[in-house]
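hi! just following up on the protien thing from before. the input was this:
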Amino acid sequence: MQLYVQELAVRYLIDPDFFIVNQVPHRPPGAEPLPWRTGPGSGNRKETEIMKTNIIQREDFTAQTPQRRNVYDSVAELVADPENPTPMIRLGKRFNPESELEIFVKLERNNPFGSIKDRTALYLLNGTPLDEDQVLTEPTAGNTGIALAALSNARGTRIELALPDGTPEEKKALLKFLGAELLEVEDELCPLFPTEGARGVVKSLVESAAYNGRYVSPNQYENELNVEAHYRTTGPEIWAQTGGQIDYFFAAFGTCGTITGVGRYLKERNPDVKIIGIEPATRQHRMSGIKRISDLPEEHRPKILDYSLIDEIIPVTDDEAFGAGVEAARVEGLMVGPTTGALLHAARQVGRTNSGTAVVISPDDATKYISTYSAWLSEQEGKAKPESES
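and the predicted 3d structure came back as:
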């Protein structure tokens, strides 16, 4: 019995609230009533004295123990950082058979607004001063806009967003749900010029004399805070979670904040880490939020991209990306978006001839792409039908 009491004492020191929530945990058959159940008829005086002399009493511990756990004053405090990292999942042999490259997927969907852009949005908003009568505006493929809208709501800031009309309906619905004013623009998901489409609309709002400085844009494509967000959070998290044992890092080209910030952090700690960039195989594609940069002249690439960090660029087709995304869901139970699918396809490709440890960024999850996945799956079913059934 004394050993049992000592075990309980250790549990008390680790988690005193356990005894409040559970009141009386299970005890071995035949054990006497537990020490904290005292009072008339408890028959428990002796063990009470043991508890008083051998472990810290409840009243002595109360002052040292926070009364509230995982309680926050703002939703912004939930955005991931090295003290509160997003998790990583090791892929199994069913998805990654006969490969000497161990693949980890970092699940950015665990951020409060569902994507890696929550990190960027928080840094951008904190670094963008606004007067009371000014409106925040930004071009977005969806994820940055969702995070900016939610954070702006928490601060009481007005926001208007410009986005391509090809943005998945789920993202548009989330933005409308958040109350953001949307400017849908005829725009490719992979525009050639920075002044085209959604970016061009925001540029005109900010620079137009007619609006007299009413609109302010953080400009995620050129703002170094986009890079800093990942240099200070995503990169350190990955380094710590892998214990510094990382050989390959995979990320897609979008605004290029992730690949530049994480790539810079990892290269500073180990120059041998390979930074692999993923892009669509063609400019015409269905992977929302990522861009083909190989065909872009240098002046049209995102200004925050540090091209010197990139060791290799791998092009991925829509079918390869969507196929790997569906496979991850059906084999691993990982509900990831098409961009993650593209990264997973590329990681397996590298794994055929290389060994070591790879980390793949999963920017968001499948719930924002159900309509596009559904359309792709219908197309595959149509291709699989025999001609006689067509």
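Residues 2-62 form one domain.
The chain has three domains: 2-62, 80-112+227-384, 117-216.
cheers
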